[in-house]
Amino acid sequence: MKKVKIVEVAPRDGLQNLQAFVLTDKKIAFIKKLAGAGTQEIQIGSFVSTRAIPQFRDMEAVTQSVRRLRGVELSVLVPNGRGAEKALACGITRLIFFFSVSSKHNYANVKQSPRDSLKELESICRLLPPGLLTSLRVDLGTAFGCPFSGSVTTAAVLRMVEKVAALGAREITLCDTVGFGHPKAVEEKFRECFRLFPEIRFGAHFHNTRGLAPANALRAYDVGVRSFDSSTGGLGGCPYAPGSSGNIATEDLVYLFESMGIKTGINLKKLLKICAWLQQILPQAKLSGSLFPAGLPRKHKLFC
Questions:
Q1: Which residues contact 135 (CB under 8 A, 6 or more apart)?
Q2: Catalytic residue flag (residue 146)
Q3: Which one, 196, 198, 208, 286, has least CB within 10 Å?
């Protein structure tokens, strides 16, 4: 049976850009609803400096309320060893470490060079017990282009993948942080990654800034990618990437794959109800998924 894993990033990537603080109980309800819709993995937030992103000042409370959810894997983004230690102390062992291939974006995002970020990653790899190293995922941002320095070559991505793999990480996601990617670039970068690093599990994280995320996801699937990030309602964007709009909407991605006979395990009807609920609790947020309920007539079969 053909299937893919969809990693829901809205509670992390989707909420980090919002100016208004989302109440803790709403965050917890959001995560539980996503789990109830059949989501396999949910990024529930970030253990980052609350001065940089105050939205996640309640991470400990959120984590304690959802960490015993069954049937779903919970992950968190950590920018450094301190973040990793906090996550582990809260019982979360699925860690996402992010840094950018582009030096300019990495400085804007985490105030250090990619080389320094690799040192942080090395410290996290040493911190993790051997049995947990396989649960570490490394996200390479701006793999398809940078808002400050422009294009990012395949060679530059491969050099960074090589450095990450040398530290023992076995799962790497290529991120189109600002939506510069297109199907040809997606095919070229992933083909080379699979060819040169067959031991690595590669995933994809696409933004839909220019409307190409669904096409990019399909091309990535054709090349061999089986893990995709997405955000319910298309929420999200990078706070340090000017012009970046939201992620590919989970409901659009689920519809794309399921209509092709590729199983996601996610109930689309429940997902669309979550979109409607989000619009009620986040009236200031713009939901951009093309299947968002407000854009469909009530007689549409998705509401049957």
A1: 93, 94, 95, 128
A2: no
A3: 198
Distance CA 18, CA 210 (A): 21
pLDDT at 295: 44
Closest CA to 240 of 13, 61, 7, 36: 13
Cα–Cα distance for residue pair 271/232, rounded to 1 Å: 8
What whole-number distance in Å separates Cα of residue 142 and Cα of residue 79? 16
User: At 113, is the secondary structure helix, strand, or coil?
Assistant: coil
Mean pLDDT by 10 residues, the chain (304 residues): 96 91 97 98 96 94 96 96 95 96 87 93 91 93 92 97 97 95 98 98 95 97 98 79 75 97 98 94 78 47 32
Distance between CA atoms of residues 175 and 229, nearest Å: 9
Residue 303 has a pLDDT of 30
| Selected catalytic residue, list 175, 238, 275, 304 | 238
Residues 124/136, Cβ–Cβ less than 8 Å: yes
Rounded alpha-carbon distances, angstroms, from residue 114 to 4, 52, 274: 30, 19, 37
137 bridge partner residues: 96
DSSP 128-168: S-GGGGGG-EEEEETTT-BTTTB---HHHHHHHHHHHHHTT
- Give me the numbers of helices (H) and strands (E) for the chain, helices first please: 10, 8
DSSP β-ladder status, 201-206 and 5-8: unpaired
Residue ranges in the chain assigned as alpha helix (H):
24-36, 59-66, 81-89, 103-110, 114-127, 154-166, 183-196, 213-223, 250-259, 268-281
